[in-house]
Amino acid sequence: MEETTVMSDTDQQKQLIELLSPAGDMERLKSAVMYGADAVYLAGTMFGMRAGANNFTPEQLAAGIKLAHDAGVKVYLTCNTIPHNSEMEQLPSFLEMAANAGTDAFIIADIGVMRAAQRVAPNVAIHISTQAGVANYATACEFYNMGAARVVLARELSFEEIAVLREKTPKALEIEAFVHGSMCVSFSGRCLLSSYMTGRDANRGDCAQPCRWKYYLTEEKRAGQQFEIFEDNGTHILNSRDLCMIEYIPQLAACGITSFKLEGRAKSAYYTAAVTNAYRQAIDGYYACPTPDYCPDPVILEELRKVSHREYSIGFYGGGEPGQVLQNGGYVRAYKVAGMVEGCGEGFVTLSQRNKFCVGDTLDVMPPGQRPFLLSVTEMYDRDGNAITSAPHAAMTVKIPYGGELIPKGSFVRIKG
């Protein structure tokens, strides 16, 4: 007689929360998978909302999906632009290609695209994009009735509003929400400012981010003269703070969110790895101690300060407007990537250099799923075993004496400054 495995309540809960990471290209996808994502979202060469990312050709998409599936990671394809008439003839073949590659779900904002996907690829799940602005249970229910498996909520909802939406929608409908990353000053990213000012359409994935620019005042008859606008609080009035909800996992879970989405398809592989790693450990820590007052280890929280970011906030989750970074439009950048681990053993860790570092520096090693640790560079050697004092050349091979536990290949190594 076969043994029956009884799943604990905690194990059942754990299956309800998915960590969803961005993958702007194959390198970022590998980072997301390696550092603990349950699923990734990415785009092909058409119909995706991040034209600035490298994205995936049909061949790369098939290879990326295989890599993810081999690791037990799902892949969701963004088809969330608002296409024009001239693009509609290309849509069916694009959706068919993506379905044949093994895509687990399409992320869609447009009803016409949704219906086309249901005709061409009926076995691929439909997730309704945040671009659709789902802010109430009635809209969520209608999308479910139309065949959607999931809605990605508008970013302007509070914990209380999400809890009501969850209560009044079918339990089979999954709820996804952004929990980390850049925020748009316009409702759920539906902005026209870039189109007006630069001709680059934000609703077609080509935002120039004029909300982050610094503005001056000019007078009609004084061409070429710019007058700076002075205000005690600053004048970057459109520059939204970044979202960071890692300290609110119990509240996110309690209001019914089933997928925690990390923003950042246009950001670096290191950003993808570091943020995924932090949220992976935080979520797992919560399930090890699922109490209402759970808060991640301060070491995990510190990891999110080691990536490039604007001032953090909790967005609209608390019921208020998150505010803007008024003084400047830039990022906080405290660390940079020193190298990538290429091998570890026989008394050395081997790095492929990304930024210059020297003997005497202290490196910050970020293994997947583990606490980061510091590595003092007391000596180092080049590929041929010659002693060197610095690593100034991009992608050069560097060996550093190391006698600790194995560091997986592909791990990121950082340096402060």
Question: Which helices and strands occur, and which strands form pairs?
Answer:
Layout: H1 9-14, E1 18-22, H2 26-34, E2 39-42, H3 58-70, E3 74-79, H4 85-88, H5 91-101, E4 105-108, H6 111-120, E5 125-128, H7 137-145, E6 150-152, H8 159-167, E7 174-181, H9 193-198, E8 216-217, E9 227-228, E10 242-244, H10 249-254, E11 259-262, H11 269-288, H12 298-303, E12 312-313, E13 335-345, E14 348-353, E15 357-358, E16 362-366, E17 373-376, E18 380-381, E19 387-388, E20 390-391, E21 397-401, E22 412-416
Parallel strand pairs: 1-2, 1-11, 2-3, 3-4, 4-5, 5-6, 6-7, 7-11, 10-12
Antiparallel strand pairs: 7-10, 8-9, 13-14, 13-22, 14-21, 15-20, 16-17, 16-22, 18-19
Helix pairs in contact: 2-3, 2-11, 3-5, 5-6
Number of strands: 22
Helix content: 25-40%
CATH class of the largest domain: Alpha Beta
Head-to-tail CA distance between termini: 61 Å
The largest β sheet comes out as:
8 strands, parallel, barrel
The CATH topology of the largest domain comes to TIM Barrel
Compute the number of helices: 12
- Count up the domains: 2
**Fourth CATH level, the homologous superfamily of the largest domain:** Aldolase class I
CATH architecture of the largest domain: Alpha-Beta Barrel
Contiguous uncertain segments of 5+ residues = 1-14
- Overall mean pLDDT stands at 88
What does the overall shape look like?
Answer: globular
